[in-house]
Design brief:
Blueprint: E1 10-14, E2 17-20, H1 21-44, H2 50-75, H3 78-83, H4 98-116, H5 120-127, H6 131-144, H7 175-194, H8 203-219, H9 247-271
Antiparallel strand pairs: 1-2
Binding site for a 1,2-diacyl-sn-glycero-3-phospho-(1'-sn-glycerol): 139
Main location: membrane
Family: Belongs to the Lgt family.
Length: 277
């Protein structure tokens, strides 16, 4: 069993001002994405300035934060936040939904593209390889917060999380690190290598949705679902059906199917005309 590193969730404390590692992880993800986007900007559109790129990153970041938080509230804990509306603003305590964040990014991207003469999928293909940076950083933030840990296990790398997080004090899968490895590192490598060559428009977006859906669906087998998700069919606490299907897995099914369909559509469309960047 590996010891859980005791890291204070507060990175910097200056009197009443407290800067949490969870928030810093979002800044790292956004900053890293901006730096890599700057390197790829000439390939995407040589006429674009760094200022226009900064505007795009700003609106996408807004989509991530607002969509992620609203999605978490709607998908996972609507009753809790209706009873405690001020907790909606306590983002440093965690509670962000990737699926909600994705919807927020899509909306921000569509709006920005309409104003700047770019199609939705042109921008999404440009953004998709950058997203795993933020995903990986966010999972490290979850790990530092000692939240979203996994099911009890006896694997050699199991960890016991702090009592304030896990009163049962059981060895558990460090599922946040599994997600960091898959959604952060592996997904970044796959998308970065795939997008290095010209690909049909929408194929990079399709691969991103497909791979993320598969990775997240897989990790959900090791991650403990939220106990307040209720049950459906024969489901138990935290499951919505069949004693194994979680809300995270349910939300991934349309992503996997949509990713496959989008890639098929992109390549069939490209076969009928010259390859588009």
């Amino acid at each position: 069993m590996l010891p859980y590193p005791q890291i204070d969730p507060v990175a910097v404390s200056l009197g009443p001002l407290k800067i949490h590692w969870y928030g810093l992880m979002y800044l790292i993800g956004i900053g890293g994405a901006w730096l890599l986007a700057s390197r790829r900007l000439d390939r995407f559109d040589p006429t674009w300035t760094k200022e226009k790129l900064s505007d795009l990153v700003f609106w996408v970041a807004c989509g991530v934060v607002l969509g992620g938080r609203i999605g978490y509230v709607l998908f996972y804990k609507p009753d809790f936040y209706l009873s405690n509306p001020l907790n909606l603003f306590k983002v440093w305590e965690g509670g962000m939904s990737f699926h909600g964040g994705l919807l927020g990014v899509m909306l921000a991207t569509w709006w920005f593209g309409k104003r700047n003469g770019k199609s939705f999928f042109q921008l999404m293909d440009f953004i998709a390889p950058l997203v795993p940076i933020g995903l990986g950083a966010g999972r490290i933030g979850n790990f530092i917060n000692a939240e979203l840990w996994g099911k009890p296990t006896d694997v050699p790398w199991a960890m016991i999380f702090p009592p304030y997080s896990d009163p049962a004090q059981l060895p558990r899968h460090p599922s946040q690190l599994y997600e960091f490895a898959l959604e952060g590192i592996a997904l970044f490598i796959i998308l970065w290598l795939f997008s290095r060559k010209p690909r049909p428009t929408a194929s990079v977006s399709g691969l991103f949705i497909l791979c993320y859906g598969c990775f997240r669906f897989f990790v959900e087998f090791f991650r403990l679902p939220d106990a307040d998700q209720g049950a459906g069919g024969n489901g138990g606490p935290g499951y919505i059906a069949w004693d194994w299907l979680t809300m995270g897995q349910l939300l991934c099914v349309p992503m996997i199917l949509g990713g496959i369909a989008l890639m098929v559509w992109a390549y069939r469309r490209a076969a009928a005309k010259p390859l588009a960047n």
